[in-house]
Amino acid sequence: xxxxxxxxxxxxxxxxxxxxxxxxxxxxxxxxxxxxxxxxxxxxxxxxxxxxxxxxxxxxxxxxxxxxxxxxxxxxxxxxxxxxxxxxxxxxxxxxxxxxxxxxxxxxxxxxxxxxxxxxxxxxxxxxxxxxxxxxxxxxxxxxxxxxxxxxxxxxxxxxxxxxxxxxxxxxxxxxxxxxxxxxxxxxxxxxxxxxxxxxxxxxxxxxxxxxxxxxxxxxxxxxxxxxxxxxxxxxxxxxxxxxxxxxxxxxxxxxxxxxxxxxxxxxxxxxxxxxxxxxxxxxxxxxxxxxxxxxxxxxxxxxxxxxxxxxxxxxxxxxxxxxxxxxxxxxxxxxxxxxxxxxxxxxxxxxxxxxxxxxxx
Length: 362
Fold this sequence. Notes:
Elements: H1 2-14, H2 20-32, H3 34-73, H4 79-124, E1 125-127, E2 130-131, H5 140-146, E3 160-166, E4 172-175, E5 185-190, E6 195-204, E7 209-214, E8 239-244, E9 251-259, E10 269-272, E11 284-287, E12 292-300, E13 307-311, H6 312-325, H7 344-351, E14 355-361
């Protein structure tokens, strides 16, 4: 009975139900009775725990009620139901929509920021394919080999042109892959006027190389090629030259090897100090002795004389791999260089037969 009365007094004290005089006396007793003080502390903790539990139960019940109400309101039974739902929750929906829009625009902005450096880098590298508005010479003989034989020949200009050169006597030619990109038909023609219809048999877009093959039944071969392919690195500062078709007539360019790596440090290419123009892509790069050391691919925008060529060592590696995999038959590459003992004009005179303007029709 005494224990019960003690807890009753404690509850009255904690609930603020004591009069001022009685409360002052009870607090004086707490200062002298350690056991009573401990009971008050424990009882206060118990009441606080019960209060917190009750609050959690009330909150859970409120949430369950709101959830049930939303499920009912979301039912498309009547238009009024949607109206009530919208009136009660439109602020939440508006906030969610704003967050979604911000996320979308933020993502788009991030993508554009990521693309910008790529676009800037692409702009710094210029491919040297030449767009042809109108050929000066009649193309009837070429078109006869391109169009269906059942249709009358209708002369039409090539859409693009570049340069290519023979890599074997049996009709294989190499050029830059961007020169023949999107082509319906491809023709090659050398300075002597020899014309051949060709098809692309392999493309390496990463290193910008395409291998073409003459497909005409009457083709008897290019004859013995006068140059050989160098399979070792050329030295920095070596004199180099090229032939190409930046216009309808063949053009000679000369310079030096200015770096043993290409654009952005590409180790499969050289940098050369030869001024080049659209139409030079796919042309041969040769050293002073007439050894073929590379394939012209492009230049750096805003840097006069900063051009690039894929190394012949990589081209030879590609040819060997294609033969091993059966994608291209084994090529008969030239083994004797007949240009090394000749002066430059004599070298160029001989090379003209094996360097072609590549005309792309689409």
